[in-house]
Sequence to fold (225 residues):
Amino acid sequence: MGIRLDKLLGKSPFGHVQEMMRLTNKVTYLLPKLFQAIKVGDLETTRSLSKEISEIEGQIDEVKHLIRQIVSESLFFPFPKRDFLELIFSMDSISDRTEKLAKLFTVRYLGYPETLEHQIEPVLETVDKLREYLSNILLDELPGLVEASFRGPEAKAVSQMVQGISQKAHELEEASHEAMVTIFQPNTGLEPTEVILWNKIIDKLEAVGLSFEKTATILRMLMEK
Fold:
């Protein structure tokens, strides 16, 4: 009895990779709303948004497990399976870190002085730009990459896009540092417990952004194998 070709090659996981990215977009779209809710002292909204983020993160986990199953059952795969799954786990870490960040907003009412808000805004903008860059790669460029077997002009163009992400990540680190410096200034009016909480929030917000860069870097490394 012969083996069907589609069984031999296995299902493609790349459509599910795009679904993970779409869900990741939904998660990170909610970040500015969390900061806005803190600004107006709306703890109920922060808790509602945190719950929504956790629910979407659960959907991402389901897609991740499906991708793992597809990869494990494939007899032939265009990449080393362990390396490809590292890409998937890195994508998953974006929503994981966003979920942990969101839960910090639910702990207590939190002062959000205007001086800090001015420093947080560029951090949020840079995180969103990193999200946009990775989303463009995985939603717009991935079909062409798959068609070209991750080689040729398509791969070169994506590599250049990844370089742009790396540059944005450096900007994120600088902006996060400026925000961190601000919370320790004596004129902010923040209580010591608020300083501690803001320190964690800024650190985790930066980690969300850097996860986009890490995912893009892993994809570039896959293309170079």
The helical segments are 5-9, 14-29, 31-39, 43-73, 81-104, 114-147, 152-183, 192-223. The domain at 7-223 is CATH 1.20.58.220 (Methane Monooxygenase Hydroxylase; Chain G, domain 1).
